[in-house]
Model the fold of this input.
Amino acid sequence: MANVDIERKEEYLRHRITATVFAPGEVCGVRIKKPNEGRVSFTEYVDPVLRGVKDSGVPGDKDAYQAWLLSRAIGRARAAIVLESTPELEEKRFKYLPPEPITVPEEELELIILRALRVAKRLDRNHTGRVALDAMGICETLNLDYDAFIYSNQRLIDRDSVEPLGGGWDPHNYLEAITEYGLQALDELERAPQAATQADHDLSHDVFLSFSFVNDAEAADIKQRLEAAGLTVFIATHEVEGGDDFAEEIREGLQSSRELCLLVSRESLESEWVITEWGAAWVLQRRITPVLMGVGHKDLPERLSRRQCVPFDEIDRYIDEAAARWRTGSPTNGIEVTST
Done:
C-alpha cells in the first residue's frame, strides 16, 4: 500500500471529496462521491524536477507544496462539479504543466460564471446556491486567465447578476450566489447564440484540425481533402514541446477558426495539447465534431459524447457538411451552445 503523506476531506454541493497526497509527493489521488452514490476518481501528477524551479509555479517548501497540490486537486474536483463534467475525470491522470491561459472574451467568461452558479443553486440542498465558487479551480480546468475571470466576476456583481456573500476558505474562492436577475440574464444569453465570441475575431479559418502527432498522416490527408472542398484549415505542429510561441499559435488558431475537427484516437485522448484545444473550443462555443479513429463513442469524455460523431471512414460526409456550412457564408452555423 502506498504511504500517505497528507489527506484532506470536504463536502461540496452534496459531493464528498477526498484528496490524498502519497509519498514521496508527486501524486495526489482524488475521489468524488456523488449524491447518487456514484464515484469518480482521478490523479494529479507533478514532475518532481519542477519543485522550486523559478517560473514553474510549483512551491519548493514541502508544506507549501503539499498545500498547493491539495488545493489544485480539490479545485479541479470542485470545478468539475459546477461545470457538470465529473464523468470526464474518471481514471484520468492530469500532469501539471506551467499554465498558458487562453484569451477568452469577457462575455464568454460571464457565461461560464453564471452557468456554474446556476448549477450550484440547483445542487445546493436549500437551492440558495450560496457556494464558495472555486475560481482558480475553474481557471485551471478550462485554461482561463485568473485575473480576467475575477474581473468578469466583479462585473457581474456590479450589475446585480451575482450576490457577493463574503470570502471563501482561501483567497481564490468567493462565497456568492446567482440572483434572479442573473438567471434571467443567463437565459437571454443562451437564447442569443451570437454571443460576441465569433464576431470579435477575424475568422480567417473555417476548420481548426486537432490531433495527436501520432496521427500526422491522417491529419495531413484530411487537411488536403478539406482544402480541396474549398475550406481554409488551421493545423498546428504538435511535435513542438510547448512554449510561448506555440501556445500563442494555438490561441490565435482557435480564435480565428469557425469550428474544430477533432481526430479522436487513443493517443489524442491522452494528449495534453489536444485536451487543451478541444476544451478551449468548448469555452469559445465553437462547433466540435469528433472523428473517431479506433475508438468508440463510449470512450469519449461526456462533453464530447454529446456531439454528433463521425467514423473516420465516413470523413467525406463531414467534409461535405462543413463545406455546405461555410461556403454559404453563414455567420452563425459554427456556434454550438450546450447547457451546463
Notes: The chain has a mean pLDDT of 83. The longest helix spans residues 62-82. The two ends are 38 Å apart (CA to CA).
